[in-house]
Design a protein that fits this description.
- This protein is mainly beta and 127 residues long.
- The relative contact order is 0.32.
- It is built from no helices and 11 strands.
- The N and C termini lie far apart (37 Å).
- Strands 2, 4, 5, 6, 9, 10 and 11 form a 7-stranded mixed sheet that branches. A 4-stranded antiparallel sheet has the order 1-3-8-7, with no helix packed on it.
Length: 127
């Protein structure tokens, strides 16, 4: 299983970015992809989750209403659209995969739940 994040960049406060998590190396079609972020000196935190089992999504309170996660079947990616970005959104963003999972509850953003991880992409929000 391979996950590769892309789309990170430097953006001004209030701006937008779209991150993509490209998936490969597996054939099962029922899984959840979580988006996480980590800043220097801080623990990795869950941001959003998308499940292919039922299309369910879940968001951390800190990004609810600003971020949206979706699936692109043509590109085989799980994308994270980030709007109204704030300096506190600055972090390395990771995507991760867990087989046969749903995204109904806060536990879907638990780091320990996920088995496969990408290498991360840097998002910096600064003027």
């Amino acid at each position: 299983v391979q996950l590769v994040e892309s789309g990170g960049a430097l953006v001004q406060p209030g701006g937008s970015l779209r991150l993509s998590c490209t998936l490969s190396g597996f054939t099962f079609d029922r899984y959840a992809v979580g988006w996480f972020r980590q800043s220097p000196g801080k623990a990795r935190e869950g941001v959003s989750c998308f499940s292919t089992v039922d299309g369910s999504t879940f968001y951390a309170d800190s990004v609810k209403g600003r971020f949206a996660v979706s699936r692109d079947d043509v590109k085989n990616t799980i994308d994270l659209q980030m709007n109204v970005l704030r300096p506190e959104d600055t972090a390395t963003y990771y995507c991760a995969l867990e087989a046969s999972s749903l995204c109904w509850v806060k536990q879907s953003l638990n780091v320990d739940k996920y088995d496969f991880w990408g290498q991360g992409t840097q998002v910096t929000v600064s003027s």
